[in-house]
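#lab-general

N.A. 3:47 PM
ok so I finally got the sequence cleaned up, no stray characters, all 263 residues accounted for. can someone with queue access submit it? mine expired

B.Y. 3:52 PM
send it over

N.A. 3:53 PM
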Amino acid sequence: MSRIPLYPDMPRPLLFAHRGLSSLAPENTMAAYSLAREKGIPGIELDVHLTRDGKLAVIHDHTTARVSPGTSLEIERSTWKELSAVDIGSWKGPEWKAERIAELPQLFEEYGDAFYYDIEMKSSVPSDYGLEKALAASLQDAFATRGDLAGKVLVSSFNPMALARFKYLASALPTAIIWSNDPEVPAFLRHGEGRWVGKVDVLKPDRAKVRPASSFRWRRFGRYPVLPWTVDTKEEADRLLSLGCEGVISNRPQELEIKPKAK
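B.Y. 4:20 PM
back already:
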């Protein structure tokens, strides 16, 4: 099976700031992404939901409760006007109180090709409610206005059905299946089985899943690039890169001492 190349022109190993530089700034905020840029981190991982009125909101959870204590807006059932008024920075510290939920096109406008992007679709149901179509359209618009984004976007998800739908709509873009042993992940998907349903190009296992045998099997026989998460110590990053992983996703990428080099 031929696969879409993963960031073919980018230096290796790949290095991502998980939800932006989330160890120092509120996760999934413009402040966190700007800080990643300032620190010279080449890639960012982020999460997108579809709002009730069709906007792509950059936030991890399905509600605002954790990152905005005292609120409990459900992302998919709320409008962009409602969500954009929510303070998602103060939980991290009073200096971040101005931070608001970003809309995906805002990131491309602000950062362009300063990063390569791993965009995680947050979909917990098998049914189609428009997320994949909205994301594919948004990316098409971004590529039309920012040609420098070509080859710099990966779309990932825990949901193999969402990935299959997205692949149908945007077959030229690489996709990745995510998995772990978290109880929220169905037992039948806790070993990366979703790669076959989603017809993906890349594997994104929880770092604990990556062992010598599994890494060899995925890379040698499956020909998959492997991007583990979340890797927050130099020792763990070194272990995973020694096993042939393509890069790492980290809350603390600035501490890993990874220096990507041109291929």
